[in-house]
Amino acid sequence: MSDITNEKIEQREFSNSNIFYPRLLEPELFVDDGEIEPSAWLRRYELFSRKNGWNEIDKVDLMEIYLSDKALNWFERQKSEFRTWPILKEKFMDKFEGQEMELRAWKNLQNLRQEEEEEVEELVAKLEKLFKKAKVMDETVRFRCLLSSIAPVYQRTILKRKAKTYKDAILIATDEEKLGKIYNYDAKKPNSSKKDDPMFKNINNEENGVYEMLLSWLERGANNAKVTGSTPVVSISLG
C-alpha cells in the first residue's frame, strides 16, 4: 500500500474520531425523575460544552436542548433570570438537588425492597446513594432503612445475631449470603451429604421465641424513631 493511501486513511480516521468523540461526552436528556444525578449530569454538560468550544452564553442558550418535561418547563419559565452561566448553574442545583430531591429520596427509601436476584452489596449501593440524596447521617436511621429493605432471610439473621450498627448488619447479611451460596452450590451436587445434615435442614427455620422478641423490640423502636427536623419516621416492614 502506498504512502499516499496510508496518509488518506489516517486523515479519514482522524476526521471520524473528531466527529464521533464529542458524541461520547454528550449528556442524555435531563428529566427531573430522580433517576439522573443532577450534579453528575451538570458536570457532563460542562465537559461536553468545553469539548465543543462553547462560551458561557452558548452554555446558557443551548442547555434547553438537553432538558425535557418538567426540567424544560422550569427553564422556559425562569429563562429571563439566567443572565450568566454561574447564575444558571446555581439555580439548576438549587432546583434539582435541593429539597425536592431530598423528599423524593426519602420516599424511595421507604419503598425500597431487595429484589429476588439482587445481592446484598447491590442493595447497599442503592441505599448509600439514597442516603446521600436524603442527607441521612444518623446511624440508627440507616440501620432501620437497611432492615426494612433487605430480604426477610437476612432480616431474621440480623435480628438473631443482635446487630447493633448499620455496618455490623451489612457484614452479617453478606456473611449469610455467602453461606447460602455455598450451601446451594453443594446441595445441587449428586450425593451431597448436606441434604441430610440437620444443621442445613434447619438453616432457615425461625427460632420463634428469640425472633418474635426482637421483632417486637424493633417495631417498638421504629414507632419512636423520629429524627429532628423534616426527616420522616422510618417505618419497618418485616417478612
TrEMBL record:
InterPro entries to which the protein is assigned, alphabetical: Retrotrans_gag_dom
Alphabetically ordered keywords of this record: Coiled coil
Keyword Ribosomal protein: no
Top-level lineage group: Eukaryota
Coiled-coil boundaries: 106-133
Signal sequence region: none
Segments forming domain Retrotransposon gag: 63-141
Name recorded for this polypeptide: Retrotransposon gag domain-containing protein
Organism this protein belongs to: Smittium culicis
